[in-house]
Amino acid sequence: MKTLNYYAVAAAALLTLAMPSMAQVKDYHDIKTPPLRSFEAAKPKRIQLANGLIIFLQEDHELPLIRGSARIRGGGRDVSANQAGLVNILGASWRTGGTESKTGDQLDDFLEARAARVETSADLDSTFVRLDVLKGDFDTVFPIFLDLLQHPAFRQDKIDLAKTQANTGISRRNDEPGGIIGREAGKLGYGTDSPYARQAEYATIASITRDDLLAFHKRYVQPNNIVFGLAGDFDSAAMEKKLRDAFGSWKRGPQAPPLPTGGTPGKAGVYFIAKEDVTQANIAMVHSGGALRNDPDRYAIQVMNEVLSGGFSGRLMTHIRSQMGLAYGVGGGVGLDWDHQGIVRIQMSTKSGSTMQAIAALKNELRDLTTKPFTDEELALAKESIVNSFVFTMDSRTKVLNQRVNLEFYGYPADFFEHYQERIQKVTTDDVARVAKKFVHPDQMALLIVGKEKDFEQPVSSLGAVTPIDITIPEAGGKSEKKASASNAEGLALANKVRDFVGGKAKIDAVKATHSVLSMNRKTPQGMMDIEVDAILRYPAERRAVMKLPMGEMTMILTPDAGFMIMGGATRDLPASQGDQARAELRGDLVGVLKNIENPAYTFTAEGTEKVGDVAGKVVEVNAGGSSFKWIVDPATGKLLRKINRAQGPGAEGDQVTDFTAWKTFGGLNLPSTSSITTNGEASGSGEMKSLEVNPTIDPAAFQKPAEK
Predict the structure, then answer these.
(1) CA dist., res. 706 & res. 566, Å (int)
(2) Interatomic CA distance for residues 118 and 107, integer angstroms
(3) DSSP code of 123?
C-alpha cells in the first residue's frame, strides 16, 4: 500500500501555492476584523498538601472523561554525563515494567479492558506519569496510577527492551541531516559539556542498571517534588477528598537539587559535517545568550522573533524563500526558556548548489536585524499575530490547567499571563531594536553546515578556517562504529515471512509498476482534508500522483532526478527538501521494500516485541536504502500489523504510527486496503485503497515535465 502520509504532507505543504486563486479580496489589508474580545479563562483550584504535593483541579463536564498527569522534578539534565540516556530508559520501562504487584502485561490487559491509559515519559527537566480514563472507571484505575507512581518494579526484561530501543536510536541518529543539524547546533550553543546538550552513547546506555533507575525514582519521586493536575467530569470537592486520602499519608522526601550549570559554548567560526548521501545542505547559525521567560525584555524579544521568523510574513521567509527562492523553510530567533538561559539559533536548508548564496543571505538578515530599522508595519503585523494566536494557548480547560501546572512547576506567579496581550501591544520599534542589539551578535555566531561539499558552489574553506565535526558513533568500548551493514537472522526471516504473506518472491519480483486509487482523510495545518489520489508507481523510484483536493486538482511527479507539481496549468519544481522527503517516503513502499530483501543496502533487524491489539508482534527495524522505519509483524502469519516512522512536513512532524486494519487481494498480491494513522499519539488520518492494478500500461510521457508555454 502506498504511503498515505506522502500525499497528505505534499498537499498540505503546497496548499499555500493554491490559496491566492481562492482569495475573496486582492489585498489582505482589505480584510476588516473586529477587535478581539477580552476573556477570562476558568481557573483551576490549587491545593497544597502538608507533604508539599501540589494539586490543581479543573472541572470540565463536556465529556465523561478524566485526564491528569503528575509532573515530577528531575530529568535528563540531572543525570551525570556518563549515564546520559538514563531518564529515557526510566520513562520507557517505568510503565512497561509494571508495579511490585502487577506486571506491565497485566496492566496492559487491565487498562485495555477499560479503554484507559496510564503512561510514563521523561524529558530534560522532568518525568511524567499520565492518566486518561472514563469517569465511571476512575475509582478503579486511579489506584493503578498511584501504585505505578509510588511503587514501580522496573522489571529487567523491560529495561533490556528499552535499552535495545535506545541503542537502535543511537545507531540511526545520523540518518537524517535535520536531526544532525539540530543536535550539533545545540552543542555549539550550549557546549558539548553542558547538561543541556548531553548525548546518549552505547557505553552510557550499557552502564545503566535497574538499581540506577530505582535510585533515581527514590531521589526524585517525592510528594514535595510533584505538581499533579487533573481535569475532567468530576466535582472538585469530592475529588479533593479522594486525592487527600490517596496522597496525604505519603511522607515528604528530599528536595530536588538546584539546577545544574556548566558548559563551554563553541567559539565563533565555521564548522562542517560531511554527509555524502544528501542533495541539500542544512545550515545553522548559533551562539549562546538567550533569555528567561521572566526577563523584562521577554515581550520585545517575542515581537522581534515574530518579525524575523513569523511564518511567511517574517523577514527570513519573505526574503530568503519567497523573493530569493533559496529555501523551503527557514527560521529561528532568540531562545526563551523557563529556568535556564537558551541560545540564539537560525536554521535553514537549501539545495546543495545554492549553499554559499544561502549562507550569505542568512548573514545579511542577521546583520539587518541589528542595523536595519524595524517598520511600524512589521511591528503591527507581528503583534497582531502574537495576540491573535494567544487565545489558542487556553482555548480548552485542559490547556488552562496545563498552563497553570507549568507556571507552578517553574516557580512563576499564577497571574503571569494575565497581562500578556497588553504588554505585547506596548512594545515599540525602539524596544525591538534595543533587544536585537542586546541579544543577537552576528560576530559571535558559530556557522554549522551539514552537506555534500563537492556539490557546493565553492569549498567551505572560502568562508574561512573550517573546524570539521566528527559525528561517527563510538562503540561501547570507545571505538568508532559504523552502522550495521547486514540483517540479523531473525529480522531477515521475518521480512521473508512478510513477503510470503503478500504473495511470494516470484509474484513480487514480477511487479514492475502499479496503478492505484486511494481515498484518504488527513490532518493538515488547514484542518482535516479529504484527498482522492490516483497514483502510478514505476519501480524502483518513479511516482505520478494526481490528487483531488478541496481547492482543485494537483499532480505531483517524482523521479530520481526531478520533482515537480502541476496545478492550474502551471508547473513548479518541488523544493529540494520536499523532494528528498518524498524519495525517502517512496523507499518505504511495501512492495518496493519486499523487492529488495536481498539488496545489501536494505537491512532487517529484529529487536523485541510490541503488542498490537491482541497480537504480540515482532519489531523489525528496516533500513531501506537510507530510509529507516519499523515494522511490527505477526510472527505466526507474516502479516504486517503496523509501521512506525519519523514523519516530516507541515502538520505531520513527529512519530507516525500506521496501523493496517484490513487487507485485500489486488492483482494477485495481498495488500493493506485500509489504515489508520496517529502522529505523536494523536489521530491524524485514515486511508482506503479503492483499487490497484499490477503492471498497467503507462504513457511514456507520464513522468515527463511539461514544456514551458
Answers:
(1) 9
(2) 9
(3) -
What Cα–Cα distance (Å) separates residue 23 from each residue in 16, 17, 27? 11, 12, 9
Maximum separation of any 2 CA atoms in the chain, in Å: 79
Residue 223 phi/psi, 5-degree rounding, is -60, -35
pLDDT value at residue 476: 60
Helix extents (H) in 426-503: 429-439, 489-502
Which grid coordinates are listed for 543?
511516482
- Between CA 77 and CA 198 the distance in angstroms is 8
Cα distances (Å, whole numbers) of residue 102 to 119, 161, 213, 285: 15, 18, 18, 50
CA distance 471 to 199: 11
Burial of 480 (0-12, 13-18, 19+ CB in 10 A): exposed
Instruction: Among 166-175, 413-422, 567-576, 603-612, name the one with the lowest average pLDDT.
Output: 567-576
- What is the distance between the alpha carbons of residues 618 and 660, in angstroms, rounded to a whole number? 15
Question: C-alpha grid cell for residue 27?
Answer: 489585498
Q: What is the pTM of this model?
A: 0.68
CA gyration radius for the chain?
Answer: 26
- Tell me the three cell numbers of residue 112: 485495555
Mapping DSSP to helix (H, G, I), strand (E, B) and coil, where does residue 373 land? coil
d(CA 145, CA 129): 8
Rounded to a whole number of angstroms, the distance between the first and last alpha carbons of the chain is 36
User: pLDDT tens, 474-497?
Assistant: 876 544 444 445 789 999 999 999
Instruction: Write the pLDDT tens digit of every residue in 289-342.
Output: 999 999 999 999 999 999 999 888 899 999 999 999 998 889 999 999 999 998
Nearest Cα to 389, choosing from 320, 313, 329, 321? 313
In this structure, which amino acid lies at residue 137?
D
Amino acid identity, residue 116?
A: A
pLDDT at residue number 19: 45
323 contacts 376 by C-beta, under 8 angstroms = no
Nearest to 573 by CA among 268, 351, 255, 284: 351
Q: Are 344 and 440 in contact (CB under 8 A)?
A: yes
At 89, list the grid cell. 530508559
Strand partners, 261: none
Q: Which three cell numbers stand for residue 539?
A: 519501480
What is the distance between the alpha carbons of residues 511 and 504, in angstroms, rounded to a whole number?
11
The strand pair at 280-288 and 226-232 is best described as: unpaired
| Nearest C-alpha neighbor of 319 from the set 379, 281, 263, 366 | 366
Q: How confident is the model over 418-428, as pLDDT tens digits?
A: 889 999 999 99
Q: Is 30 exposed, middle or buried (0-12, 13-18, 19+ CB in 10 A)?
A: exposed
By the 8 A CB rule, do 705 and 562 touch? Answer: yes
CA atoms within 13 A on the CB side of 331: 12
- Consecutive H or E run containing 604: strand 602-612
Record the cell numbers describing residue 212, joined without a space: 540506577
Cα(526)–Cα(448) distance, rounded to whole angstroms?
33
User: 575 near 646, Cβ under 8 Å?
Assistant: no
pLDDT range class, residue 434, cuts 50, 70, 90: very high
20, 26 Cβ separation under 8 angstroms: no
Chain centre distance of CA 374: 33
Q: Is residue 63 within 8 Å of residue 51, measured between CB atoms?
A: no
- Measured CA to CA, the distance from residue 378 to residue 271 in angstroms comes to 33
**Distance separating alpha carbons of residues 108 and 96, to the nearest angstrom:** 8
Query: What is the spatial distance between Cα 371 and Cα 416, in angstroms, rounded to a whole number?
Result: 32
